[in-house]
Design brief:
Elements lengths: L3 E5 L3 H12 L5 E4 L5 H9 L6 E4 L2 E4 L1 H9 L2
Parallel strand pairs: 1-2
Antiparallel strand pairs: 1-3, 3-4
Length: 74
């Protein structure tokens, strides 16, 4: 299993993404991008500032639907 990092902002989709990961028993690092200008860093690092954003190893999944698909296929 690759290391998972979930970028969130406290919004509804972010909360749902976290809930899905927890329900499936995934261990992940949570990063709140609504503090300290991290949303700008997200844009620089991953080409988008959209959240939720899940990084799994070298793969990036943007938005709740992509994260759901990733979870279903693991």
């Amino acid at each position: 299993m690759p290391e998972l990092t979930l970028f969130v902002d406290g919004g509804e989709e972010s909360e749902l993404a976290e809930k899905l990961l927890k329900e499936k028993g995934f261990k992940y690092k949570r990063v709140d991008v609504s503090v300290n200008g991290l949303k700008g860093w997200l844009l620089f690092e991953y080409g988008t500032s959209a959240v939720p954003l899940l990084v799994a190893g070298g793969a990036v999944f943007v938005g709740l639907e992509e994260i759901k698909k990733f979870i279903e296929n693991i």
